[in-house]
Amino acid sequence: MKKQNRAFPPLRGGRAFRPSLTLIAASGNSGATISNAFSPKILCVTGQMAAGKNYICSLLEEDGFISIDLDKTAHAAISLCRDEILSSFSSEAERRGIPLLNEDGSLNRRALGQIVFSDEELLARQESIVYPKIIQLTNQFIEEHREKSVILNATVLFKTPELLSQCEKILFVTSGFFTRLRRARKRDGLPLAQILARFKNQKNLLKAYKAAAAPLGIPVEIVKN
After folding, report:
1. What band does 10 get if pLDDT is binned at 50, 70 and 90?
2. Alpha-carbon torsion angle 64, 188, 193, 207, nearest 10
3. How far apart are CA 50 and CA 180, in angstroms?
4. What local confidence, expressed as pLDDT, does residue 100 receive?
5. 46, 173 in Cβ contact below 8 A?
6. End-to-end Cα spacing for the chain
7. What is the pLDDT, as a whole number, of residue 38?
8. pLDDT of 175 higher than 70
9. CA dihedral for 211, 212, 217, 222, sign (positive or negative)
């Protein structure tokens, strides 16, 4: 059944329409709007690496939304799935000479990322381990805040239809390539090659969201940041 595309009143004070932040409907109609004025709802805020998802979420939080950062949820899920991840990736890590554990025995997430983001098969293997736990933790958050409107701040929510199907709208945040590159290098301190590999993996992200959202009747809107 197609979701009803309700009108969302603008953010109070017009904050969503600053010169640096223009919200545009994917169909090309301008003036897409959002608010927390009505019944609680769930929004997905997504976009490519360093596009500015957290900034958009902060604007919505000022208007009464509450957000969950699924990158942080994924970090928690990886820690909870430590033993299974070690069992699945230790041989590959040893072959490449990459230590998967920190000195305190915790998983080195950057080292794990260096392995899985270089190979689609390895990435799919990690996702099969971690995603069920991410879904569980996210649903717990939604249930704990069921009286409020919730933002799912996530890069690849389209890979978890169990969560995406709960969303009333998808906001896809975009920014220029060199702006994202500058932000990513300043924020994350990752090697250039690793950043570019992640950019490459996300080049068809908007297309993937549109494909996932269409059968669910979820509108996709673009936020230029």
Report:
1. very low
2. 0
3. 5
4. 95
5. yes
6. 32
7. 53
8. yes
9. negative
- In whole angstroms, what is the distance from residue 187 CA to residue 189 CA? 6
For helices 70-80 and 82-96, the axis angle rounded to 10 degrees is 90
Query: 126-149 burial string, b = 16+ CB within 10 Å, else e?
Result: bbebbbebbbebbeebbeeeeeeb
Average pLDDT, integer, range 84-92? 96
Collapsing DSSP states into helix, strand and coil, what is residue 107?
strand
What distance in Å separates the CA atoms of residue 31 and residue 223, rounded to the nearest whole number? Answer: 11
Nearest to 99 by CA among 88, 115, 83: 115
Question: What is d(CA 38, CA 143) in angstroms, rounded to the nearest whole number?
Answer: 18
Assign 3-class secondary structure to 183-214.
HHHHHHCCCHHHHHHHHHHCCCHHHHHHHHHH
Choose between 14 and 183: higher pLDDT: 183
pTM for the predicted model, two decimal places: 0.80
Cα angle: 152, vertex 156, 157; to 5 degrees: 45
Question: For 96-135, what is each residue's pLDDT tens digit?
Answer: 999 999 999 999 998 998 899 888 899 999 999 999 999 9
Tokens of 17: 């329409």
Rounded-to-integer distance, Cα 33 and Cα 107, Å = 41
